[in-house]
Specification:
This protein is of the alpha/beta class. It has one domain (about 5-200): 2-Layer Sandwich (Nucleotidyltransferase, domain 5), CATH 3.30.420. The chain is built from 5 helices and 6 strands. Helix 4 (about 130-145) links the parallel strand 4 and strand 5.
């Protein structure tokens, strides 16, 4: 059984005044065959085409979003970190750009159930530009796992285009759902807190320290 991880985020990791205040990181673990079958059925049922990409902010049909969440409920586990730069003591409290993404991915991994990362690959949304993130993440994650006395390790960290990767689309949709819930000031984070108990959500606030540092900025 293959249960890889996929990573995507909503918002941007910049900290200048014009950047968005929220950066929401999502890391999901799923069975490739099960997820692929569920999304194939959904694409067929909604007449979306077999190569349709689920990208939350580009979907205007509410029923597609609702049906997606219904289709994936209880077939994956995940972790989401909601980082509100304006709620921290300084916008760069956890770093910026690549460094901030590293911090958020590691926090998500630490929220996952024990054993989730053991010997499985993790794929990050993006093209060549993500290689900088991959290089920064590997040593920072290893260091943090050692500090936490966690012996499990990923088999590899790579990247892929979201249009070709159901897992990344799942990560995108969950991050997007949380972002929409916050924007609409909903009391419940869409389906995540109620219909799906396999998703853990963290929203860091001061005085929570920046957990780890890398040489990347």
């Amino acid at each position: 059984m293959s249960v890889p991880l996929a990573v995507d985020w909503s918002g941007d990791p910049g900290v200048d005044p014009k950047s968005q205040p929220l950066c929401i990181m999502s890391v999901v673990a799923y069975e490739e065959d099960v997820l692929g079958s569920a999304l194939a059925r959904l694409r067929e049922a909604k007449s979306l085409g077999q190569h349709y990409e689920f990208h939350y902010k580009d979907i205007n049909d509410r029923s597609v979003k609702d049906n997606f969440m219904a289709a994936v409920t209880d077939i994956f586990i995940g972790a989401i970190v909601i980082f509100d730069k304006d709620a921290m003591e300084t916008r760069d409290a956890w770093g910026r750009d690549t460094n901030l993404l590293v911090q958020l991915i590691i926090q998500c991994i630490l929220l996952l159930p024990p054993g989730t990362i053991k010997g499985v690959p993790m794929t990050i949304d993006g093209k060549r530009e993500v290689k900088v993130l991959e290089r920064a993440l590997r040593p920072a994650l290893s260091k943090k796992l050692l500090e936490e006395e966690i012996t499990d390790r990923l088999s590899k960290i790579g990247h892929a285009k979201s249009k070709d990767h159901n897992g990344i689309q799942l990560a995108d949709m969950t991050a997007g759902a949380v972002r929409e819930a916050i924007s609409n000031r909903k009391k419940e984070l869409f389906f995540l807190r109620t219909a799906h108990t396999g998703v853990r959500i963290l929203q860091p606030k001061p005085p929570m320290e920046r957990p780890y540092r890398t040489k990347y900025k």
